[in-house]
Design brief:
Chains A, B: This is Prephenate dehydrogenase. Chains A, B: Keywords: Oxidoreductase. The structure is a homodimer of 289-residue chains. The first copy, chain A, has 289 residues and is an alpha/beta fold. Chain A has two domains: 173 residues, Rossmann fold; 109 residues, 6-phosphogluconate dehydrogenase C-terminal fold (Orthogonal Bundle), CATH 1.10.3660.10. In chain A, the strands form two sheets. Chain A has a six-stranded parallel β-sheet with strand order 3-2-1-4-5-6. A three-stranded mixed β-sheet of chain A has the order 7-8-9, covered by helices on one side. In chain A, α5 links the parallel β5 and β6. At the A-B interface, α7, α8, α9, α10 and α11 of A face α7, α8, α9, α10 and α11 of B.
Chain lengths: 289, 289
């Protein structure tokens, strides 16, 4: 049982952790920290958190579990704010979308990554943001990746693992660099594509109202383009090492597809579409497992 | 009231036209034509159609409304099969995804487009195909675009318009070339991107199981990559004039995004994401109208 759970960033993820922790009776008290006063007020009013602070150090004081759930660009500031009161008896973890950047940030601030800090990332989300988008069952059946270092305390890892499992998630461990490589492909690249396409077509729409004739396929394809711009700015910059080569590889894939279309290479184009459909079925089969 | 409705291609679209026409009592009899014997048998067994033929000319004989709902690559063959028995008293229309190619096909076969042929396209679909995927309400609240020519009989247009309206759709008219331009942007390009991405990541997944850590965002982004490969092969070839420049334009958009990420151009990247989110909201607002 956690006594005092401190959540830094009470948005979609942080708010959902709070709601689930409360519903599953995983802690006695939930302290929320948020730089956005309106968001913090809503979290308090709706009973998502018990106490609210704008100050990171005040919020984290006396917590035995601290979860950092902000966009990854804020970690330097947050680690610096935590440094003075770093709770060596507590467990600190995070829900940041990239893992190497978070670990590098901890190294910058602390010299080395504290052994009670467990880097983590729940593979769950939505295109909506803020505490208003949080739900009690966001992590139910979802995957969470922890990327502990060799120096990370095994008991701290165990406590974070149990926390996520208690909220219904399946917990995996992998190397931070591997996490960033996999997520760049399955999440970061699709987001960049969705943002770029929606932006390009938005400009066309201003000229000739094409959106009027877009339908359900377009709605689903572009759903992730409604995601929080700040969060995605941070991810793109934090994981650019993995994302950039994938963008260029995808540009090459498109060049190949365009060339097949131009040449009317029926068999190869058909094979490409069949392979894509097969690959997606493999993905769906895994998703349901 | 239609006496004998002939649907050529009893798949997702054709089957849904049959189901809706029956439910709304728009016709006395529904004749289905399909080259796929299994699909035709299912359509008969499930009562989606009353009579089934594999032969286009036999199926269309004595029909007063003929709807061609096959992939657009089949139109030459179908028009040729209809030529001998071309029903001048009937109205012939289609549900093909591209309109210039269908009109060019009619010109190739008939010399000029028959005045009782009304080119059309319902903006409705799903990633599933075949009569098993058809539903009675697929067109409810959806948009249908008709692209009649100057020589098209206004009364034929009127009858097709009424047919779609009776199935719950909103009917618009536009130039065939404009249809193809708009749909290339809102539908064809996203499909090419989804196929290309799923194909590329499918190859990566074979090497290191990345799909295991893909989630809801990826599921929705790639949904259209499960679409019928034959239908999309035909669309890509039929509308390559419009699709190819868009693929290349999108590759340039990606190059710009990559360059912003590489340079760490925070403000511009943030503005791109904000603009994209705003554009998608504009689209959503229209979709709900």
């Amino acid at each position: 049982m956690i006594n005092r759970l401190c959540i830094i960033g009470v948005g979609l993820i942080g708010g959902s952790v709070a709601r689930a922790a409360r519903a599953k009776e995983l802690c006695h008290e939930i302290v929320g920290v948020d730089a956005d006063a309106d968001n913090l007020r809503s979290a308090l009013e709706w009973g998502v958190i018990d106490v609210g602070f704008s100050d990171v150090a005040k919020g984290a004081a006396n917590a035995d579990m601290v979860m950092i759930a902000t966009p990854v660009g804020s970690f330097d500031v947050i680690f610096n704010a935590l440094k003075a009161i770093w709770p060596t008896e507590a467990v600190v973890t995070d829900a940041g979308s990239t893992k190497c950047s978070v670990i590098e940030s901890a190294k910058r601030v602390f010299g080395e990554v504290p052994d009670n800090f467990v880097p983590g990332h729940p593979i769950a989300g939505a295109e909506k943001s803020g505490v208003g988008a949080s739900t009690v069952d966001l992590f139910q059946g979802k995957r969470v990746i922890l990327t502990p270092l060799e120096t990370t305390s095994p008991s701290a890892v165990k406590r974070v693992e149990r926390l996520w499992q208690s909220m219904g998630a399946k917990v995996y461990q992998m190397e931070p660099a591997h996490h960033d490589e996999v997520l760049a492909a399955t999440s970061h690249l699709p987001h960049v594509l969705a943002f770029a396409l929606t932006n390009m077509l938005g400009k066309k729409d201003e000229q000739q109202e094409i959106f009027q004739f877009a339908a359900g396929g377009f709605r689903d394809f572009t759903r992730i383009a409604s995601s929080d711009p700040k969060m995605w700015l941070d991810i793109c910059l934090a994981n650019r090492r993995e994302i950039l080569p994938l963008i260029h590889q995808f540009r090459e894939e498109l060049a190949v597809a365009a060339s097949l279309i131009e040449k009317g290479a029926t068999d190869q184009l058909f094979a490409l579409f069949v392979d894509a459909r097969g690959a997606r079925q493999r993905f769906l089969d895994q998703l349901e497992k």
